[in-house]
Amino acid sequence: MKLKSLSLIDGQFVDAEITTDTGTINVEAEISFIPPIYSSIPPIYIGHAVWKETGDHALGYIAQHFDAVRDLITQELTHMVE
Questions:
Q1: pTM over 0.85
Q2: Measured between alpha carbons, how far is residue 14 from residues 7, 26, 61 in Å?
Q3: Residue 82, CA distances (Å) to 32, 34, 40, 44, 45 in order
Q4: What's the distance, CA 40 to chain centroid?
């Protein structure tokens, strides 16, 4: 799984394109840069995910691979704000 592109919109929303072995997923998410007390990782709320090739919903795939998706997005965001 690789992050192909990521855009930060209004400092709070992410539009990302993630490539997988199965295809490419377009992801729209909301980021909270105020991490919860129990974790240093900012919460990510994925509101929309579709397979680019078909337009089918990809939330099931995202749910199964959520930790990897979250890590890809947070790593890229970290590089953007440094």
A1: no
A2: 6, 10, 18
A3: 17, 17, 17, 19, 23
A4: 17
